UniProtKB/TrEMBL annotation, chain A:
Enzyme Commission code(s) on record: 6.3.5.-
Record bears the keyword Repeat: no
GO molecular function: asparaginyl-tRNA synthase (glutamine-hydrolyzing) activity; ATP binding; glutaminyl-tRNA synthase (glutamine-hydrolyzing) activity; transferase activity
Subunit structure: Heterotrimer of A, B and C subunits.
Keywords: ATP-binding, Ligase, Nucleotide-binding, Protein biosynthesis, Transferase
Keyword Mitochondrion on entry: no
Transmembrane segment boundaries: none
Catalyses which reaction(s): L-glutamyl-tRNA(Gln) + L-glutamine + ATP + H2O = L-glutaminyl-tRNA(Gln) + L-glutamate + ADP + phosphate + H(+); L-aspartyl-tRNA(Asn) + L-glutamine + ATP + H2O = L-asparaginyl-tRNA(Asn) + L-glutamate + ADP + phosphate + 2 H(+)
Protein name: Aspartyl/glutamyl-tRNA(Asn/Gln) amidotransferase subunit C
Automatic annotation (TrEMBL), chain B:
Claim: ATP-binding is one of the keywords in the record: yes
Domain Amidase: 13-415
UniProt entry keywords in alphabetical sequence: ATP-binding, Ligase, Nucleotide-binding, Protein biosynthesis, Transferase
UniProt-annotated stretches for the region Disordered: 1-26, 75-109
Annotated source species: Halogranum rubrum
Name of the protein this chain belongs to: Glutamyl-tRNA(Gln) amidotransferase subunit A
Molecular function terms, GO-annotated: ATP binding; glutaminyl-tRNA synthase (glutamine-hydrolyzing) activity; transferase activity
Quaternary structure (record): Heterotrimer of A, B and C subunits.
Protein family per UniProt: Belongs to the amidase family. GatA subfamily.
Length: 92, 424
């Protein structure tokens, strides 16, 4: 079951979803390892349905302005900036 | 300093006032933000990242008079059980330099065991404080979820992780926990229980009348020498007035699966922030956004991080979410229930911290599943949000064995008291 579930194409597909480029060797190694790991995860099928904690409550605070980083501090670790903005590659 | 490679960055910062940690040096795991001091998370992605602010725990230890001894080596983003997935090379175990120190807080534990720092801070997502404490023969505490602020901790799996202390003795670990515990407005998951704590005062060695439960699932199958050392420690506690009984936690047989599905899923989301734009390695400006992002992450992440991000993406993807993530959450609820039931009858639970002695360097790197299975005794605690301590309990073939004591929610005093008796 697991052997057919993960092949090289599937690893490439997931890597694309996760935005991680892989070389061919990594794809091959991951396909084998993922088959083993996912087969091991199959044991979760045996877990009974359990009542989850029902007494969870949201912890909220008033939405008030607080001290934060300065623009200079926020930009300090960016590989490239321009006119006080982060510089990224084109979006499409 | 020695060549253990316990530190990624060996810069020191002095404490800011007099307090309980005056004169103490603290190794800080390199996923905990230190203002002005490089914080890499053991990753090439953050090779040049210098945080513009201190984590809450770092502020607190500086206010308490502690100095920072340096930034301790770790598995990349906390993903590993040996400190070998660090982009800055493995840390050696000071007890036997051919062995791993455990992980992921291996640099923190090795620094304390070798005397390169008086104390250390680590983080524990699935055993990352307790495992290296056990392998290096020192004490490590994973606090109850919500006891210690995670503000400034670079996230790997936020629903599971806590910052905690590593020290040569239970009392010193408890002193550092007293300094860092307590509510923080910057972390909405913190609770009031740690305010004005006196955990160090609980290290009095008094176990008269204490009831200890031993979950058979966490002892069966462990290495023989580890099991012998474990039962010797339980006998010592009995001699001091404690009693033990065997208990069963059937759900923990699914804990490793549940832990890895949840941790990987959270990791795939948390690590999406590393796009090479605001910080980290740039993917360049040649292609479009997606191509640049994917190339930054190819370059910046090591194999174990890619593995977990991809498996997490897979587990959350359409068609697989119910099979993996939803079932893992069921298992997590089941494990919590099992622990609650056990604590109706006993004060603390005990097991070997690690089922095996420290691996040889390089032994487990090629087989990720085998490495995951070594976390069998530590991950149930994170899934159940409980506190646990690892305290040295003898040796097997000259290598340290750790005893794990697990307490009920916010039962830090109970496990500290019991662990201090093991030291006597």
């Amino acid at each position: 079951m697991s052997q057919s579930r993960v092949d090289a194409d599937e690893v490439r597909h997931v890597a694309e979803l996760a935005r991680v480029n892989l070389d061919d060797d990594e794809v091959e190694a991951f396909a084998t390892q993922f088959a083993d790991i996912l087969e091991y995860f199959d044991a979760l099928d045996e877990v009974p349905e359990v009542d989850r904690e029902s007494d969870l409550v949201n912890v909220m605070r008033p939405d008030e302005v607080r001290e934060g980083l300065s623009q200079e501090e926020a930009l300090a670790n960016a590989p490239e900036t321009e006119d006080g903005f982060f510089k990224g590659p084109r979006v499409s | 300093m020695s060549d253990l490679n316990a530190f990624i960055t060996e810069e020191t910062i002095d404490g800011e006032s007099d307090g309980p940690l005056s004169g103490k040096s603290v190794a800080v795991k390199d996923n905990i933000s230190t203002k002005g001091l490089r914080t890499t998370c053991g990753s090439a992605m953050l090779e040049d990242y210098v945080p513009p602010y201190d984590a809450t725990v770092v502020e607190r230890l500086k206010d308490a008079g502690g100095s920072i001894a340096g930034k301790a080596n770790m598995d990349e983003f906390g993903m590993g059980t040996t400190t070998e997935t660090s982009a800055y090379g493995p840390t050696k175990n000071p007890v036997d330099e051919s062995r791993v120190p455990g992980g992921s807080s291996g640099g923190s534990a090795a620094a304390v065991a070798a005397g390169e720092a008086d104390l250390a801070l680590g983080s524990d997502t699935g055993g990352s404080i307790r495992c290296p404490a056990a392998f290096c023969g020192v004490v490590g505490i994973k606090p109850t979820y919500g006891l210690v602020s995670r503000y400034g901790l670079v996230a790997y799996a936020n629903s599971l992780e806590q910052i905690g202390p590593i020290a040569p003795t239970v009392e010193e670990a408890a002193e550092l926990l007293d300094v860092v515990a307590g509510p923080d407005a910057h972390d909405g998951t913190t609770r009031d229980e740690g305010a004005d704590s006196d955990y160090a005062g609980a290290a009095d060695g008094d176990v008269d009348g204490l009831t200890i439960g031993v979950p058979t699932e966490l002892v069966d199958g462990a290495d023989e020498g580890v099991v012998d050392a474990f039962w010797d420690a339980i006998s010592e506690l009995e001699a001091q007035g404690a009693t033990y009984e065997e208990v069963s936690l059937p759900s923990v047989d699914h804990a490793v699966q549940a832990y890895y599905v949840i941790a990987m899923s959270e990791a795939s989301s948390n690590l999406a922030r590393f796009d090479g734009v605001r910080y980290g390695k740039s993917g360049g400006y040649e292609g479009n956004w997606n191509e640049s992002f994917a190339s930054a992450r190819e370059e910046g992440f090591g194999a174990e991080v890619k593995r977990r991000v991809l498996l997490g993406t897979y587990a959350l993807s359409a068609g697989y979410h119910d099979k993996y993530y939803a079932k893992a959450q069921d298992a997590r609820a089941w494990i919590k229930q099992d622990f609650d039931e056990a604590f109706a009858d006993v004060d603390v639970l005990a097991s070997p911290t690690m089922p095996v002695p420290p691996f040889e360097l390089g032994e487990s790197l090629d087989d990720p599943l085998q490495m995951y299975l070594a976390d069998a005794n530590t991950v149930p605690v994170n899934l159940a949000n409980l506190p646990a301590i690892s305290v040295p309990a003898g040796e097997t073939e000259g290598l340290p064995v750790g005893l794990q004591l697990i307490g009920p929610k916010f039962g830090e005093e109970q496990i500290i008291r019991a662990a201090s008796a093991v030291e006597q």
